[in-house]
Amino acid sequence: MKVSQAAPATSPAPADPAHTGSLEVPSTGMFERHRPEDHPQGHRLRVLTLTALGVVYGDIGTSPLYAFKEAFLPDYGLTPDTLTVYGLLSMITWALILVVSVKYIFFVMRADNRGEGGIFALLALLLAQPLEGVRGRRRRLVMVALAIFGAALLYGDGIITPAISVLGAIEGLEVATPAFSRFVVIITVVILAVLFLFQKHGTERVGKVFGPIMAVWFVTIAGLGLWHILQRPEVLFALNPWYGVRFFMAHGVGGAIVLGAVVLAVTGAEALYADMGHFGRDPIRLAWFSLVLPSLVLNYFGQGALVLGDPAAATHNPFYLMAPRAMLYPLIAVATMAAIVASQALISGAFSLTQQAVQLGYSPRMTIAHTSKHEAGQIYVPEVNAALAIGCILVVLAFRSTTALSAAYGIAVTGTMAITSALYYVVMTTRFGWPKGRAVALTVAFFALDFAFLGANLVKIENGGWVPIAIAIGLFTLMTTWKRGRMELTAELNKRTLPLDMLLEDIERKKPVRVEGTAVFMTSSKTGVPLVLLHHMKHNKVFHRQVVLLSMLTGDVPEVPAEERVKVEAMGHGFFRVVATYGFMQNPDVNDVLKLAQKAGLVVRKNDTTFYLGRERIIPSGASTLAKWRKVIFIFLSRNARSPSEFFNIPTSRVVELGTQVEL
């Protein structure tokens, strides 16, 4: 996410109030986030790979804390005999290979939107494809609904991941000293509270050590696993997928339900795609195949080897029981740091997701603060931070253990995976140009995995799986209500606008009084006269010497290149239309837009400029098709949205707001 400037001149002619024409505005290059190289080499590749460890793989990297032990819950009725252990290890290994390596690393990461990944980037990519006819519009509506619900599920993941990761790390204290059992929950709550309180200070400094922390973590868990594998090397037979097949043959429906525990090993796979824009494909792939995948497999097999030698370990905590007694407390410390890194990645992801939702029009304006002078991707959204903090602490207090939380965890992850598969099918057919049969075959293979995991988790709804579903439904309702409400409100306001040429003709005929200075009128319309300008004309009966109609638009790409970002068009009679288009990963800034426009010849003096903003008071008694309960929600969201002057960084001392009532 970046605040950036506008575009170089292809025709840098000076502007004059009477001139008509289109001018491209030169760039000042204030705060650019450069997308990562397509194929970094040497030292740069190693740096990006190490950094990716700390951002991309925190979630999936801490899964060994709880994934294997959850398969031996009494609900599944498994006994830790040889064939059961081999079957579970085989399923975990092949889940990592098929879901992460094949689906996400090899296929899904190909669907980038100018280097960016994630479900909103994928949605914008799909919306850029032309779809004609009733069938095409219905298809687009379904895609949008799926993407929004997938994004809503990711917020549920953002609440549960910090809770289960930190709780899983602190549960090691129970293994070290049973007397610590009663303090596990309170210690977890304290760590989470400190973590969320720290967000406003940014992660620029500590972020530099995230990669090394996770590197130490992966080397540590790999070493622990290897030590136990060397003691029982026969456990490596479980690499054969046949043991997974035999597990299903032996346990039937019960074997399928165990997939609800196996899927915990692949949580965080969506992060590979979502964080692609920060690091690029090559560093993420290199980190996965060179360190993350081998370390995870070694650790899971080490836990399996431990259980083969001591079946009682399966019902306790095989991860921590692998460690020698003298190493237990250092391991808990490293695990806690790794859990904090995993939590930070999900929290930062929620901030990024919110910024994209705001820019794409699915969320009210929120406070988006940059916490780094150098990295545009480091942002802080206090409203989201508070909601995540409350949610995380509540689920820890409610569930109190990773065993109980695991029931709530899988549904958010598997639901998002299935939605990604559905959207990826459309990408294959519309963007990649794949034959329909080939695309269907691959999608069916993806769905076979996704729905197997999702089905196994649906049986957990009563035991906590309802939590992420309830969160997703609530957020889906809010996002769709806001989008529909803004569309209805814009349509209603557009009915009251006036074509600009009619206004200019009226000015030519009546010669109204003109006062010195510049008046900037914010408008969402690129053609008509904003309602706030008509109110100003009606009540004040004067115009400034220079009038700027400023539209801040969001494109369907992550970042709009500098040379395409701002356009200025002189309309005559001192009127100028300025259109600034930002990507959905960028923050719009009025001050910077006007500075760039000034370089193109538009005279704008800061102390002689007044910004006119409209403030609508919405009355829920109009003829809008929006349901009454949605109108109530929309009005509440509108009243609590961040003001345009703050969101667009307009000097508050230069703002005049004119209100109007709108029946919706």
What does this structure look like?
By secondary structure, this protein is of the alpha/beta class. The protein folds into two domains: about 20-35 and about 500-664, no CATH class; about 40-485, Amino acid/polyamine transporter I. The protein contains 26 helices and eleven strands. The chain has helices at about 40-55, 60, 65-70, 80-105, 120-125, 135-170, 170-175, 185-200, 205-230, 240-250, 255, 260, 270-275, 275-280, 280-310, 320, 330-360, 380-400, 400-430, 435-460, 465-495, 500-510, 530-540, 590-600, 630-640, 645, and strands at about 20-25, 370, 380, 500, 515-520, 530, 540-555, 565-570, 575-580, 610-620, 655-664. The strands form three sheets. A seven-stranded mixed sheet has the order 1-8-9-7-5-10-11, sandwiched between helices. A two-stranded antiparallel ribbon has the order 2-3. A two-stranded antiparallel ribbon has the order 4-6. Strand 2 (about 370) and strand 3 form a beta hairpin. Helix 21 (about 465-495) packs across helix 25 (about 630-640). The longest helix has about 40 residues, at about 135-170. The chain is elongated and about 95 Å long. It starts with 20 loop residues before the first strand and ends with a strand. The model is unreliable at about 1-35 (pLDDT under 50).
